[in-house]
Structure formats: C-alpha cells, structure tokens
Write a structure and sequence with these properties.
α3 (40-55) crosses α6. The strands form three sheets. A two-stranded parallel sheet has the order 1-2. Strands 3-4 form a two-stranded antiparallel ribbon. A hairpin with a 5-residue loop joins β5 (146-148) and β6 (154-156). The protein has a domain at 39-180: C8orf32 fold (Roll), CATH 3.10.620. The longest helix is centred in the C-terminal third of the chain and has 18 residues, at 185-202. The chain has eleven helices and six strands. It has helices at 5-14, 23-34, 40-55, 64-78, 96-102, 107-120, 158-169, 185-202, 206-219, 224-236, 240-252; strands at 82-83, 104-105, 125-128, 135-138, 146-148, 154-156. Helix content is 55%, strand content 7%. The chain is mostly helical.
Length: 263
C-alpha cells in the first residue's frame, strides 16, 4: 500500500508499543498530510524552548499546584494561548502546528501542548477519558485535581468535573471512575482524528473525511464503526470495489456496532 510521506511517518510512529509513541510527533505527522512541507523538528523544538523557559521560573521546592501555576502563567498569560470559542469547528484547531502558530485550539489539542510541556518538566500528566470535554491530570495516584487546558488551565476537582459534565449533557451526571482513566496515545490520536472526521463530514469534504477514517483504522484496524464509515465514504466517492469489501465485512461481523466509537 502506497502512503503519502505524512501518513507513512504517522504509521511508523504508531506502529510501536504505546510507551514508545511520541505523541507530539504523531500529531505533527497527522498535520503533515495537510501541510506536506511541515518542518517537524522545528515544532518539536518549540516545546523544548517552552519547557526551558518555564524551568527557569520554578523554585527548587516543587509541588504539583506550583508547577501547574507556572505552566498556566507562561502558556496563557505570557504567550496568550486560548481556547478557540469563535471558530471552534475550524479544522486548523486539530492540527498541532496551527495550534502552536495561532496559539489557539480545541480542548484536545491545547491539552496536547500542555502534556508535552509537562513531560519535558519531568511532571508526568495524562489525558483522561472524560466524555464531552477533554481534560488532563497529573499522573499520580489520588491527586484529585484536573486541568482544563481549553479554559486557561483551570484547576478542577471532582465536584467541578461533575458540574462541567452536567453543563455538557444538560442533566445531572455523576463522575464515574472510568471517566478519569488515562487514555492511551492511540486513543488520544483517534479522538483527534474523529473530531476531524465529523468536521469534514459537516463540510461535505468527503475525501478528507475518508483520510481521517483511514488513519483511525491504522490505529484500530478492527473498529467496526470506522470500517462501516469508510465503506460508506468509498460508496459516496464512487469507489465501488473498496466499498463492497468494507460493507460486506461489516455485514458478516457478529460484533459490529454502528453506535460504537473509538477513543
């Protein structure tokens, strides 16, 4: 199978154990398909510079809230990063290079910027499986604190998260333990691609929606909903042979779940 440079780079990055996947690289390789001349190393170096500048501000005695406060001050006050509330569904919000250049994005991409900075400060953080709004947290047991990178790095506690979920779903929602479980690198990337898929479908840009689905299937080859969606997109694009293969496989699958989702 012939891949573009960006997709080949993406495939190579994700085709290794989870703990070896470089999330920033993988996200930039996603963007490389849209921006073929993207200078990957230049953007990776941006995170090194950010972390080094924050490092200079940190006291010798470090504790989680102090580190989070320093990241927030630098990222949001000094550099002016902010959630893109004016043009939330612009595809550029899902491309890490654009988020760095424009200093704005959606919850998952701003969270990725935050995670990359924290990693370089030796302060491990993870994305969590919160439905409706992507959050991050320190990767320590029982810290009980969460960070909303979309809202200026707001520090949240469990009750705050329940209130946020209630706002999102317009009904009382209790915080389930699974909601705070860390997402794997592949799940995070799939969630980014799922955002792009729905944006492109809403724009009726079927080739780009198909490209998003194809990359989700590189992450999760057995995802039935994505295989179904790929078959339907092939059909709409007149690629009958590919469509029939995917849709026939879904029809034969006893576990196919059209309501399922990835990430």
């Amino acid at each position: 199978m012939h891949f573009s440079l960006g997709r080949q780079n993406f495939f190579n990055e994700i085709n290794q154990p989870d703990d070896q996947i470089d999330l920033a690289k993988a996200a930039l390789y996603l963007a490389q398909e849209e921006y073929p001349n993207l200078e990957i190393e230049a953007y990776l170096n941006t995170f090194e510079v950010m972390a080094a500048e924050i490092e200079e501000r940190l006291p010798v005695e470090r504790y989680p809230l102090r580190i989070l406060k320093s990241i927030n001050q630098y990222l949001y006050d000094d550099l002016g990063y902010t959630g893109n509330t004016r043009d939330y569904y612009n595809p550029s919000n899902s491309f890490l290079n654009e988020v760095i250049d424009q200093r704005t994005g959606i919850p998952i991409t701003l969270s990725l910027v935050y995670l990359e900075i924290a990693q370089r400060l030796d302060f491990p953080m993870v994305g969590i499986n919160m439905p409706g709004h992507f959050l991050i947290r320190p990767n320590f047991e029982d810290t009980g604190i969460f960070v909303d990178a979309f809202h200026q790095g707001e520090i949240l506690f469990e009750q705050d998260c329940e209130e946020r979920l209630t706002q999102v779903f317009n009904r009382p929602v209790q915080l389930q333990p699974s909601f705070t479980d860390p997402v794997s690198p592949k799940q995070l990337l799939a969630r980014m691609l799922t955002n792009l898929k729905f944006i492109y479908l809403n724009h009726q840009d079927l080739p780009k929606a198909l490209a998003a689905v194809e990359r989700i299937l590189l992450l999760f080859p057995d995802a039935p909903q994505e295989r179904r969606d790929r078959g339907l997109l092939y059909y709409q694009l007149g690629q009958w042979s590919q469509a029939s293969q995917d849709l026939a496989k879904i029809a034969r699958s006893p576990t196919s779940d059209p309501k399922g989702s990835v990430g």
